[in-house]
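Box 3.1. Reading complex inputs
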Amino acid sequence: MIYLDNAGTTKVSENVKNAMIPYFDEIYGNASSLHEMGQIAKEHLERAREKVANLIGAEPREIYFTSGGSESDNWAIDSACKIGEMRGKKHIITSAFEHHAILHTLKEKEKQGFKVTYLPVYENGIVKVEDLKNALADDTCLVTIMYANNEIGTIQPIKEIGAICREKGVPFHTDAVQAVGHLPINVKEQNIDMLSISGHKFHGPKGVGVLFCKKNIPLFNLINGGAQERNRRAGTENLAGIVGLSVALEDAVNEMNEVSKKEIKLRDKLFEELSKIPHSKINGDKKNRLPNNFNMSFEGIEGESLLLLLNDKGICASSGSACTSGSLDPSHVLLAIGLPHEIAHGSLRLTLSKYTTEEEINETIRAVAEVVEYLRKMSPVWDKLEKGEIKHVI
Amino acid sequence: MLYSEKVMDHFRNPRNVGEMPDADGIGEVGNAKCGDIMRMYIKVIDGIITDVKFMTFGCGSAIATSSIATEMIKGKSIDEALELSNQAVVEALGGLPAHKIHCSVLAEEAVKAAVKDYYDKHGIAYDQEKYCAGNCPCIHEHDIHD
């Protein structure tokens, strides 16, 4: 099996797996207990918190462990909105192509009377700082813009966005689920007030994440109950998961230079070779994107068929086609960067990891080229394009 | 797996796929914007559909429904072909996921569109109301989706 859906989830590394095992039956105390078993667990918990804090340039007290990226996103938005409402501020700024954990949460806020500005992301998939400046208003209570996009991998000007928000005194949250462990991050240097992390995107376990919240930014309770997570999020800590996340992040940061170089080399090979397919298009900025992200559209074909046939060849990939999402519209990300529906339907996302090999990439190149050609042969759209009855869009 | 064995079989090994340059009727339904277009070609001799071909742009179930629909009407009389319902297509495939039912509707429409084209080209009178033929607004889930 060639696994190229690492933006979806990653394999837990051997090192992370081994680091987690003692927490199931050796260091299994409840970190809230007074006895030795509990206190040992507490030490390990706080050590993991320190580790994560150090790795992103935060302080340990600014790290809140959650169940994952979606929870962190929901929490950040909910909390900022509550504070905004108390101050009579009900305007939020975001980008048009955020993850649904952000967009659907903001839709709920709109129902509650908040006004949301969706910044355009243009053809390259990058927000313009000028647009943000123009959108900021006196009643803006939150700016939430993702660090790197989950489908096309494009990296946003986080530091500049953070600086503008800070100047205006508006809290800035970034959904960094795709970026953490893949790009260097320092919340202090990058002027970030709140940041979401998900463990399973960098070879950590599923079901664990982080919300970083700067110490002077008020954070409302998410779950009421015990005093865990500085009284903000009750519930006995998922210590195995938390330690797993911290080890995974440490490994990812240590290996980042080396892994990125390798991923960029292989990813660019995919771009180079698959761009040779006529009437294909790279989606999003070619350079300013996550090292492991490949996203292209092939005219005249539909993504789900492409994925199913690649799956038959042992390749796990992803697409922004409507049919793959269970909804009937193609990916909002691809529409946001201006792709026509029919081109968005024919998109392919391949996301690499440190485990991806050159042989796998070579095999994938052959397979994609073959499948695209096969599907085009049976496509009435391609037929019309070839006969000149309709015009090529890409 | 999202699809039944039968759907995957027709998707992987589509029957009667390809162009038919000397077709007696050609029907095309769907919309690239919605993600699926089906084109159906029929050859008609003495009121019998002696050959069928299809070309489809779309997801796995769009290809599978086209494929099985061609099998279901090949060798049949036009009247029999016109009786092909989307439910029959779904049943023959051993079911489809709920959000893919519209593919079977497209397959039914593609057959009707091909027959209508055959009637038009051969000056055969027919009841206009019976043929959606891609001219009427096709009710996809797309349109009724909130």
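In summary: The mean pLDDT of chain A is 97.
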